[in-house]
Write a structure and sequence with these properties.
The structure is a single chain. With about 110 residues, the protein is an all-alpha fold. The chain has 3 helices and no strands. About 10% of the residues are buried.
Length: about 110
């Protein structure tokens, strides 16, 4: 099957976008982790909230890269693997957002006291 120049360009562009999203996600997670350690050492009461928000943002970039990866998948076996990764990262994102909501509520309640 012949691959057109447009298909090659699209595949090349998507590969670079996936790489960019992966790197940005990793950098965001690293920065959030370092900030989390900094806040923990300084006993900031919002350490968990800050860390959860950073992890959530990093996972969103990683999830975006996996969604882009579905565009260039060629075999059904790969689709299953990418789909499982997407489901896992989506579940992690939902859990982290739930944690953020709970931490924000706790912060509001503690500030009222």
């Amino acid at each position: 099957m012949a691959v057109t120049a447009a298909e090659q360009l699209l595949e090349h562009l998507i590969s670079w976008a996936i790489l960019l999203f992966e790197y940005v996600g990793v950098i965001v997670i690293i920065v959030a982790g370092v900030r989390g350690v900094w806040y923990y050492v300084h006993r900031d009461p919002l350490t968990r909230l800050s860390l959860a928000k950073g992890l959530s943002l990093g996972l969103e970039f990683k999830l975006g890269s996996e969604i882009l990866r579905t565009v260039i998948v060629r075999e059904f076996k790969e689709i299953g693997l990418v789909g499982a990764i997407i489901l896992l990262r989506a579940a992690l994102t939902v859990l982290i957002h739930w944690e953020i909501k709970n931490e924000e509520q706790a912060a509001v309640e503690s500030s009222k006291q």
